[in-house]
Backbone:
């Protein structure tokens, strides 16, 4: 397997949740500007329509990520009955308060109970989605998630912002250029973050912890991604199933521009 499990700070148990949330908000802006949100909307819309479901379940939501924007985009495009349930193995308490607040959008909610993606029998019904979170799983856990989706006949969409094409030695050399560039991008993108808190500004511009950690984790995620070849290896370990179909490929925007890769598993209809 080409994938390498490089250290990411946000995976560490002691890493502050508020700092992880700030990094996620920057990533949401980046996803929007690079067309990833558009590509995700196309994939989610197609999968939900083919499966005949109006419920999307975001696994590994953290602080919410891009899925609220994706669902909002689809609803504006005509899928007015579509609703989103966010969940995580370790639910984000701040996100629960934000999305479940009285008077908030009825089509968005954050499940306060833990949900383990390795056992989707206990997950809420609907199209399961993992957005930029699958690379956090080690191979045994990644394989368990795919096996659970196939075994329980649950539709599952895995999406990553990029493919893992760069050889690992070249990635190591490229850190000299990659780290400063990604850190600089955090400085540029932060004014577009919503909601933009004083803490986000403070730890971006006065005490630049967010750009530094965002840069490392952003670069470290690249060799961690399960590329198309790695996905083939994971799928080859699953039992044969005539009633479940896997599809993988390059995600594309409405304009045809490539914007990451995806793996889509669906029960045969």
Residues:
């Amino acid at each position: 397997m080409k994938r390498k499990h490089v250290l990411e700070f946000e995976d560490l148990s002691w890493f502050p949740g508020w700092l992880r949330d700030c990094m996620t908000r920057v990533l949401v802006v980046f996803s929007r500007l690079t067309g990833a949100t558009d590509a995700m909307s196309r994939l989610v819309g197609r999968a939900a329509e083919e499966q005949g479901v109006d419920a999307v379940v975001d696994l590994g939501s953290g602080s919410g990520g891009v899925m609220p924007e994706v669902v909002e985009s689809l609803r504006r495009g005509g899928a007015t009955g579509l609703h989103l349930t966010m969940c995580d193995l370790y639910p984000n308490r701040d996100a629960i308060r934000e999305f479940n607040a009285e008077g908030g959008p009825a089509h968005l909610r954050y499940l306060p109970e833990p949900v383990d993606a390795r056992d989707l029998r206990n997950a809420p019904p609907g199209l399961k989605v993992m957005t930029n979170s699958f690379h956090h799983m080690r191979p045994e856990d990644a394989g368990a998630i795919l096996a659970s989706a196939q075994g329980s006949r649950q539709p599952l969409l895995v999406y990553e912002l990029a493919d893992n094409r760069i050889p690992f030695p070249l990635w190591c050399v490229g850190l000299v250029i990659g780290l400063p560039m990604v850190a600089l991008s955090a400085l540029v993108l932060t004014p577009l973050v919503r909601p933009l808190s004083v803490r986000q500004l403070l730890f971006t511009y006065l005490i630049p912890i967010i750009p530094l950690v965002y840069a490392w984790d952003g670069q470290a995620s690249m060799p961690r991604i399960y590329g198309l070849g790695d996905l083939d290896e994971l799928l080859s370990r699953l039992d044969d199933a005539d009633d479940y179909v896997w599809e993988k490929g390059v995600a594309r925007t409405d304009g045809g521009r490539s914007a990451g890769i995806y793996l889509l598993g669906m029960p045969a209809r």
Remarks:
- The chain is about 45% helix and 15% strand.
- The two ends are 32 Å apart (CA to CA).
- The first helix runs from residue 17 to 34.
